[in-house]
Amino acid sequence: MWNSIPPLLKGTVVTLELTFLLLVVGLAVGIPLALGQVYGGRGLVLLSSIYEQIFRSIPALVLLFLFFFGSSFIGLNISAFLSAVLALGFRSSAYQSQIFRGAIQSIPQGQMTAARSLGMGKFQAIRHIILPQALRLSLPPWSNEYSSVVKDTSLAYAVGVIELVREGRYIIVRTFEPMIIYITIAVIYFILTYAGNKSLGYLEEKLKVPGFETKGRKE
Amino acid sequence: MAKRKMGLVFAVVVLMVLVLGSGVISPAAEKKVYIVASDISWLPFEWKNEAGNYVGFELDVMREIAKLEGYRIEIKDVTWSSIIPGVEAGKYDIGASGVTITGKREEVVDFSEPYWKSDQAVLIRKDSGLNIITALSEGRTVGAQKGTTGADWIQINLIEKGVKVELKLYETYSLAVLDLVNENIDAVLQDEPASRASVAKEKAIEIAGIIVTGEEFGFLVKDGDPYGLLSKINEGMKKLHASGQWDKLVAKYFGE
């Protein structure tokens, strides 16, 4: 039992790396996407909506296979790990864009008008007035996205990324002790999800502007 | 305006770092290391040992041949069902995973000389009171690994002939065995060597009998063998047989 811990921890590191990169890709694409959907011209709105719809409607596993095997057909030989980061990251960006879009749209329009009338440009207003509030509002739903991304990483095994679940399977194949290994894996996922959500809750508390929080947490 | 560009630049930079940082985009033409794909969950042919190394009969054969023929390999663990598609797509160069040579598979990949003969074993629970006939008769649920010749055998020789058994497919062979132990299915059909290995580990199951299918395993490469690997693999196997190394590996992994 105890000697199964080191390989499982090794797998956990890969799971964490994947989670981190997926969230980074999701953020880096998701925020511009949300801004495009809210403030863009007709073309930009259409483009970002198509992107968002495509990546939200294809099952994660199918996306993984499309990126991994599909990349070969266009002459790119990308690794399993990178295909997982891109496929699941773009997918997360589509979901994240909706979180940010909702948050941006919940800021009263009058604020934009007020900022513009003070002489701010559109992008200055977004940067200094809208985003600081919208991002704070996004934190609670974003922690939801974090929770599902952590677990989505287990799909990456399908294209050959050796993450937590696969490391567990190696041990089961050798020892024929499935229950103890799967319970250990479940505990590790629980810790990852719980710790992440706790940290995000802490961040939310730290960043809150009195009077503008989503809803006071009951202490 | 500058702010919008910042966001775009940031996104582009992140992607660039990901792509370049992992150093994975390489033109398919220059090959220094050949990638061997295997579903590493099939004792004694391939598994991961406690020290964290990929071991097993086929992997050792692959390593020995590479040494003899002077090329380098990297062994990759992939799902069974993506071995042939991956070799076809050029993701992997060699498939080494107890793949039975069949006409259908030969249409899409090229096989080496056969290196192993195998039949299908029928696994049952010791306490089930079944035998090889009753385990495969009407109303039973039989498990097999997805895309294997065992699964094909059930489909062709039972289901298509009107025997109403239920075929349950699993991503890995060990999951099928687990479901058998857990009494969710009545029997598992799988190649004989792997079945023997699992019977040695799992006390609740036994081999009810062998279905002689006379299958032969081969290593496989992309259709047309673009890197001329098959002649090297076949040559390497000959050398291993001649030097007695082959028999040593068989004894090491199959005992007896």
Describe this structure in words.
The complex is a heterodimer of chains A (219) and B (256). With 219 residues, chain A is mostly helical. Chain A has a single domain (2-207), classed as MetI-like (MetI-like fold). Chain A has eight helices and no strands. In chain A, helix 1 crosses helix 4 (80-105), helix 2 (42-57) packs across helix 4 (80-105) and helix 7 (164-175) packs antiparallel against helix 8. Chain A is flat, with a radius of gyration of 20 Å. The model of chain A has no long low-confidence stretch (mean pLDDT 92). In chain B, 38% of the residues lie in helices and 24% in strands. Mean pLDDT of chain B is 89; it is low at 20-29. Chain B is of the alpha/beta class. A five-stranded mixed sheet of chain B has the order 4-1-5-12-6. Chain B is built from nine helices and twelve strands. At the A-B interface, helix 1, helix 3, helix 4, helix 6 and helix 7 of A face helix 1, strand 2 and helix 6 of B.
- Supply the helix-strand structural class of chain A: mainly alpha
Name the beta content range of chain B. Answer: 15-25%
CATH superfamily caption of chain A: MetI-like
Strand content of chain A: under 5%
Sketch the major β-sheet of chain B: 5 strands, mixed
Number of β-strand runs of chain A: 0
CATH class of chain A: Mainly Alpha
Q: H/E order of the elements of chain B?
A: HEEEHEHEHEEEHEHEHEEHH
Amino- and carboxy-terminal Cα gap of chain A: 39 Å
By DSSP, the count of extended strands of chain B is: 12
Q: Give helix % range of chain A.
A: over 70%
Largest interface: A-B, 46 and 46 residues
String of helices and strands of chain A: HHHHHHHH
Domain tally of chain B: 2
Count of the separate structural domains of chain A? 1
In one word, what is the shape of chain B? globular
Main sheet characteristics of chain A: none
As an assembly, this protein is heterodimer
Radius of gyration of chain A: 20 Å
Helix/strand/pairing category of chain B: alpha/beta
